[in-house]
Design a protein that fits this description.
The chain has 410 residues and is of the alpha+beta class. It has eleven helices and 19 strands. The strands form four sheets. Strands 12, 13, 14, 15, 16, 17, 18 and 19 form an eight-stranded antiparallel β-sheet that branches. It has a four-stranded antiparallel β-sheet with strand order 2-3-4-9, with no helix packed on it. The two termini are 37 Å apart.
Length: 410
C-alpha cells in the first residue's frame, strides 16, 4: 500500500504552513518518512530528508536563508532538491558538496494545498485536477487535522452514508453548514438505506437510496477516488465538502478537509463557521493541527447533551463525532471481528479495489486507478429520482465536473 500511495500526488501541507520566502521550515511525516518542507529565498518549495547527511541532526533547527536550508550544527547547507551546496569546514567545498545529496521529493502548490509526489520520477503523473483546488480562491476553504488512527478506517467512514442518520442526526438540525436542506428530512425519515455501488474510472460511486415522496427515491452519491479522496453529497445550496485521508504512518493520518462552491463565493458566515469547527471541519489547538476535542479529554463528551438529543453520541461536531468513533476502534482496527452487512457494500468494494490495485502494481507494474488527473473531475450529488431509474444512468452529468454549473443537490 505504501508503493500504491507513491503513485499519486498527495497532500503534504497546507500552503499557509509555508506562507512566505525564507519562513521557518516545517516537519512533515508522510508514509512513515520524516521530512522537512521549506520555501527558499526565490519562493521555491522543497521537501527533503529531515536529517543532515553529516551527523544526522534535524534540519528543523536549521536556518532558512540565502537560497537554502543550513544545518545549525556545522553549517552544511542544502537547496530545495536536497543537494548539498555548502560545507564551510571543507577546503574543497565544491567537489565534496557534489557527492552529498539528501532524499528529496517534488512539492508544488495547487489551490491552497502543497502536494508531494514520493514515487518514481519517471512515472510522475499530471498535477491534481480536483475541482475544489481549481475554483477561484474565494469559493474554497481547506483545513487539516491529525487523526490518531490508520488512514483506511478513517476513509471508510467517508464512504459510509448509513451512519449519518444516527451519529450526525443532531447536526443535521443545527449545524450552520448542514441545516435547512430538504435532504435532511429524507436522512432522518428513512433509517434503512439501500446501497448500490458503481465503478468509476478512478474508484467508485457509492449510492445510498432512501424513500422520498410520491413513490420516488432520494439518492446520495459519494465518489471515492483512489487512494483516499472522498466527497460528501451536498445539502441544499450549502458548500460541497470532502476529505483526503493521508497516511502519516500505520497508526496516524492527516485529514485534509475542504469546502467549496462551484459557482459562488463562500459567504463570511460560512467561512467563519468552517474556521470555528462546524460542518466537517475541526477546532484545533492553537498553533497545531490537533483537535481541541481529542482522545486525551474524551472528546469533551457531554452526557447531558446526549440525553437531550443535541448530539447523538454526546460529542459535538461532525468531524470529531466521526474521529472519536474511528479512533475508539484502536489505531488499526481488528477486521477479523467485524460483522459486515449490506449497508457496508461501499466499504467492501473499496477494500477489494485497493487490494486488487496493490497486487497488480506489485506483480505487473499496473498503474492504479486515480493516478490519471482526468479521474479527478468528479462531483458528489444528491437527487430525487423515479423509482425505476438507475442512479448512475440518470446522474452522469451530476457526478461530472462541468465548470460554471452548480452542484446537483436537495
Amino acid at each position: 500500500m505504501g508503493e500504491l500511495f507513491r503513485q499519486y500526488w498527495i497532500p503534504a501541507l497546507l500552503a499557509e504552513e509555508l506562507p512566505e520566502n525564507d519562513c521557518p521550515p516545517v516537519r512533515v511525516k508522510l508514509l512513515s518518512e520524516r521530512l522537512i518542507a521549506f520555501r527558499d529565498s526565490e519562493g521555491r518549495y522543497g521537501l527533503i530528508d529531515e536529517f543532515c547527511a553529516h551527523r544526522g541532526a534535524s534540519l528543523w533547527f536549521g536556518r532558512n536563508e540565502e537560497g537554502g536550508l543550513r544545518c545549525s550544527y556545522h553549517g552544511w547547507k542544502y537547496d530545495v532538491t536536497g543537494q548539498c551546496v555548502e560545507v564551510p569546514s571543507e577546503p574543497d567545498n565544491g567537489t565534496f558538496c557534489a557527492t552529498v545529496k539528501l532524499t528529496s521529493y517534488p512539492l508544488v502548490k495547487v489551490g491552497d494545498i502543497l502536494w508531494a509526489y514520493l514515487g518514481d520520477p519517471a512515472k510522475r503523473p499530471g498535477l491534481p485536477e480536483f475541482e475544489f483546488v481549481h475554483v477561484p480562491s474565494e469559493q474554497t476553504y481547506t483545513s487539516k487535522r491529525w487523526q490518531e488512527s490508520n488512514w483506511l478506517q478513517a476513509l471508510e467512514g467517508g464512504i459510509d452514508s448509513s451512519h449519518v442518520t444516527w451519529l450526525h442526526s443532531g447536526a443535521l438540525k443545527t449545524d450552520p453548514l448542514f441545516k435547512g436542506a430538504k435532504g435532511n428530512q429524507y436522512n432522518i425519515g428513512d433509517l434503512k438505506p439501500f446501497f448500490e455501488v458503481a465503478e468509476a474510472d478512478g474508484g467508485l460511486f457509492v449510492g445510498a437510496r432512501r424513500n422520498a415522496e410520491d413513490g420516488k427515491y432520494y439518492w446520495r452519491i459519494t465518489p471515492w477516488i483512489m487512494p483516499s479522496f472522498t466527497m460528501v453529497p451536498p445539502r441544499g445550496d450549502h458548500p460541497v465538502h470532502g476529505h483526503f485521508w493521508v497516511p502519516i504512518d500505520d497508526e496516524n493520518c492527516w485529514v485534509y478537509t475542504f469546502d467549496y462552491h462551484p459557482v459562488r463565493a463562500l459567504t463570511p458566515a460560512e467561512l467563519q463557521a468552517m474556521k470555528a469547527g462546524f460542518g466537517v471541519h475541526s477546532e484545533n489547538i492553537p498553533g497545531t493541527y490537533r483537535p481541541v476535542q481529542n482522545k486525551d479529554n474524551d472528546y469533551l463528551m457531554d452526557r447531558e447533551a446526549q440525553k437531550r438529543g443535541e448530539h447523538y453520541s454526546g460529542v459535538r461536531g461532525i468531524a470529531i463525532q466521526d474521529a472519536s468513533l474511528q479512533e475508539s476502534m484502536g489505531p488499526i482496527v481488528d477486521r477479523t471481528k467485524e460483522r459486515l452487512v449490506p449497508a457496508d457494500s461501499g466499504i467492501i468494494k473499496a477494500r477489494q479495489k485497493l487490494r486488487k490495485a496493490a497486487i497488480a502494481l506489485r506483480d505487473e507494474g499496473v498503474t492504479p486507478p486515480g493516478v490519471d488527473p482526468a479521474h479527478h473531475r468528479v462531483r458528489s450529488a444528491a437527487i430525487v429520482l423515479p423509482r425505476a431509474e438507475s442512479f448512475l444512468e440518470s446522474c452522469g452529468d451530476a457526478v461530472t465536473v462541468i465548470p460554471g454549473t452548480p452542484q446537483t443537490s436537495v
